[in-house]
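Board notes, transcribed. Complex of a protein with calcium ion.
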Amino acid sequence: MKRLYSLVLSAIIILVLATPAIAALASPVPAAGMAELNSIPQTAALKSSSGAGVITNSFETYDETSPVIMINSQPAASTNVVQSGITGSLSVTASATQGAALSYQWYSNTANSNTGGTAIGGATGASFTIPLTLAAGTYYYFCEVNAAGGALPARTSVASVIVHALTPDTQVIRVTASDRVHYKEKIEYTINAANMKDINTIALDFIADSNIINGADTLAESMGGVFQIFDKQAVLDPVTNLWNIRVVLSIYGDVTSGTSDVCKLWLNPIRLGDANVTLATVAIYGIDIINGKPSSNQRLTAVIPASNTTRIYSIYDINDDGEVNWVDLTLAASHYLAKAADANWNSARIADVNGDGVVDLIDLVAIYANFVP
Ligand SMILES: [Ca+2]
Ligand SMILES: [Ca+2]
């Protein structure tokens, strides 16, 4: 073990010494004539080389020194809510090169499109709370991200919000989870039930992508006066690695009406990326008042499918490509001995994984120790 450690240190030190050459290779060299190209106005009349005529071309003006915006995670494609009990929000994660400051503007649209749309007053954060007063129907939203320094704006894909009409007997199941979870932590899903009067049993079937996540030691646990009959996970499709997770709950007297958290579900990240978990089906059975057992009649009057996407990230993934490997170590090494007082700290600080204000061997060893395939 000691020998392995010193081998790693040697490898890192060699890497650090070799870094200027790597950095020189990686630095983009402006193409000859780029400055002239950039000075061409948006619509330019160019004379052809033969002089036979005039060709008019349109150009997007592009300055290679401007920051570039990346949308790292999109708002949920589809969110189901129930009228008068609307909860939840839509959110976007974005970044820009050169550490440019980002700004956000959410839009609503009458069609399933992210062109056009109407800017929503005050909706200028990375997260947008779904308006509580929406009537039953389908609504379309998207976010436009802008960055300082002349970056081209970037728009997210469209997020549909489906508002279901509420009737007195509508049972509602909601599932919520964090948008982002660190690789070393569990993803926690909270299952909330509403309008459970005279309900005996709830059976929930989730579909999870086991390329990214796997069952935790404790898969599910009931709460709020609800009894858990069983939980289990099984391979649904060995080709796509989709897993089915079934949780069956029994409802007792305490949860007869209103809204209550009835269960938690935990999954373990096994890789970086977007973990998708969908509540595929819900079966709700009422009480058979003759013998007190579950009725064979399903009482469900509103299926609320819910899909949650959680970004599994690692602070050691310096280039944010979903893996922690030698590329990240090389990138971090290119900032070796950068300090918080340095002019380039804005670009170097990502390599300071322990946050102590300097990029040194401790950071490089930590990145090496947290490689993720
Ligand atoms: Ca990486
Ligand atoms: Ca450090």
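Confidence is low (pLDDT under 50) at residues 1-5, 15-62. Residues 326-369 form one domain.
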